[in-house]
């Protein structure tokens, strides 16, 4: 290992002046993500502006055996972007340009530091639509979204981030620059390495450019929030609406979530009565006939006893307010230092799965408050256990981790995923075997070795070598 001062001096020669940071505030700011389990302890922060500078940093790191951690919007929830062991953080904030928009192909080339909302607004200005959306859209960066294959609230209609990446330029762990797929729709020429880097959490290399696909802008997005008496009824509502209408979103959340959001923000309850669960549906009401169909389906659900009350948006402002009930949950519970689990199963297994998990959590943590929400239309559940004020963070996490084995054994029983959309990082690394077989993990290690033989790219994340 080269002397610390030599590393900082060497890095300073590879990027623009003033773009290597070592002050305490910068180390703390860039060295962490939204997880609170690990304390950031990076050696330095380096902010490149070009792909060539990223290549130079990676080659320097190989030469001097320096570990690198990528940093985007730092909104992750798996500690994949946490530098806790003296690594150099490569932050992509300055690589934030949108280039080469092609209206005919509906594609745009983006640097990794482009913020999700920035791409959404660019698409809107060009009468198009970027549908990958989530509560952190105002701060999450595209490189991080791709590296974790981010999902969000529109997956039921539009899929994951992976489905919108038509090409990538990446710098591998060797410092090589690869141009993957070149934006092609059809390319049957062997292995598509693009998809290896999507969801790899920076362990194979760093994304330096992405060719993203855009879509037609949906017309008259309309939101319904329905009060539901029991969880299984939510699935009946989903099945009923999906039989007639292509939904753009289907979310659920518990009354505890509504209670917290309405208490801490200027957001009213959707209707006067409180119900144990709520379903939020979004649909493209391009014609009056679609709206009439939606209302008829709502009435059917009420008649069947699956829905107790409901409201439908009459304007964009009201639709946004109803969405706030769902999208405000993560922000609202953040001060409670929640212990989060982001799991998934196929949609048909969701009711039995949630019932099993709820029983485990309720029996183990009778004194803890539980907040449920999730992208139920694609089988993704978010379990949030809130820390009691009197309990220390360390003791709280220790108690929560004590039941993880039972939770993840249940995930395995239903052939689900221990991480639906937040990645593995460090927080889910001990539980990877509940979703991936030992044979799969060995193949993953072999892929890592091929692209990053010196193990400098985000080491210690996803799995250990």
Automatic annotation (TrEMBL):
Residue intervals of the FAD-binding PCMH-type domain: 38-217
EC numbers: 1.1.99.39
BP GO terms, sorted: respiratory electron transport chain
Pfam family, one: FAD-oxidase_C
Reactions catalysed according to its record: (R)-2-hydroxyglutarate + A = 2-oxoglutarate + AH2
Sorted UniProt keywords: FAD, Flavoprotein, Metal-binding, Oxidoreductase, Zinc
Entry keyword annotation includes Metal-binding: yes
Cofactor(s) of this protein: FAD
GO MF annotations, alphabetized: (R)-2-hydroxyglutarate dehydrogenase activity; FAD binding; metal ion binding
InterPro entries with a match to the protein in the record: FAD-bd_oxidored_4_C, FAD-bd_PCMH, FAD-bd_PCMH-like_sf, FAD-bd_PCMH_sub1, FAD-bd_PCMH_sub2, FAD-linked_Oxase-like_C, FAD-oxidored/transferase_4, Oxid_FAD_bind_N
Annotated family: Belongs to the FAD-binding oxidoreductase/transferase type 4 family.
Summary of subunit composition and partner proteins: Homodimer.
Name under which the protein is recorded: D-2-hydroxyglutarate dehydrogenase
């Amino acid at each position: 290992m080269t002397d610390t001062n030599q590393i900082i001096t060497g890095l300073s020669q590879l990027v623009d002046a003033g773009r290597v940071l070592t002050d305490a505030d910068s180390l703390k700011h860039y060295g962490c993500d939204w997880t609170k389990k690990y304390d950031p302890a990076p050696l330095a922060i380096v902010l490149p502006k070009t792909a060539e500078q990223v290549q130079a940093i990676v080659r320097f790191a190989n030469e001097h055996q320096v570990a690198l951690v990528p940093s985007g919007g730092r909104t992750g929830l798996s500690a994949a972007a946490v530098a806790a062991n003296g690594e150099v953080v490569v932050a992509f904030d300055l690589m934030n340009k949108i280039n080469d928009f092609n209206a005919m192909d509906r594609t745009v080339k983006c640097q990794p530091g482009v913020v999700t909302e920035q791409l959404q607004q660019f698409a809107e200005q060009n009468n198009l639509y970027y549908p990958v959306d989530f509560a952190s859209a105002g701060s999450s960066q595209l490189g991080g979204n791709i590296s974790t294959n981010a999902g969000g609230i529109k997956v039921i209609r539009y899929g994951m981030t992976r489905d919108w990446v038509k090409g990538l330029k990446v710098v591998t762990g060797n410092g090589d620059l690869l141009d993957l797929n070149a934006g092609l729709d059809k390319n049957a020429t062997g292995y598509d390495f693009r998809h290896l880097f999507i969801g790899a959490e920076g362990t194979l290399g760093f994304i330096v450019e992405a060719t993203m696909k855009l879509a037609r802008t949906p017309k008259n997005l309309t939101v319904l929030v329905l009060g539901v008496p029991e969880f299984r009824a939510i699935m009946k509502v989903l099945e009923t609406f999906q039989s007639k209408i292509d939904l753009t979103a289907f979310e659920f959340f518990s009354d505890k979530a509504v209670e917290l959001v309405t208490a801490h923000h200027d957001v009213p309850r959707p209707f006067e009565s409180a119900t144990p669960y709520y379903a939020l549906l979004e649909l493209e009401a391009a014609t009056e006939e679609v709206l009439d169909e939606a209302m008829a389906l709502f009435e059917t659900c009420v008649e069947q006893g699956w829905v107790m009350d409901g409201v439908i948006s009459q304007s964009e402002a009201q639709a946004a307010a109803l969405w706030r009930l769902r999208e405000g949950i993560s922000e609202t519970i953040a001060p409670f230092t929640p212990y989060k689990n982001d799991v998934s199963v196929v949609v048909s297994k969701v009711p039995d799965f949630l019932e099993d998990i709820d029983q485990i959590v309720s029996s183990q943590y009778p004194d803890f408050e539980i907040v449920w929400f999730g992208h139920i239309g694609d089988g993704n559940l978010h379990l949030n256990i809130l820390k009691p004020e009197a309990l220390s963070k360390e003791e709280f996490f220790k108690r929560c981790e004590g039941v993880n084995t039972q939770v993840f054994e249940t995930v395995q029983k239903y052939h689900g995923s221990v991480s639906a959309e937040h990645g593995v990082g460090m927080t889910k690394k001990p539980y990877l075997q509940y979703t991936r077989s030992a044979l799969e993990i060995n193949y993953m290690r072999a892929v890592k070795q091929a692209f990053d033989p010196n193990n400098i790219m985000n080491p210690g994340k996803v799995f250990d070598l």
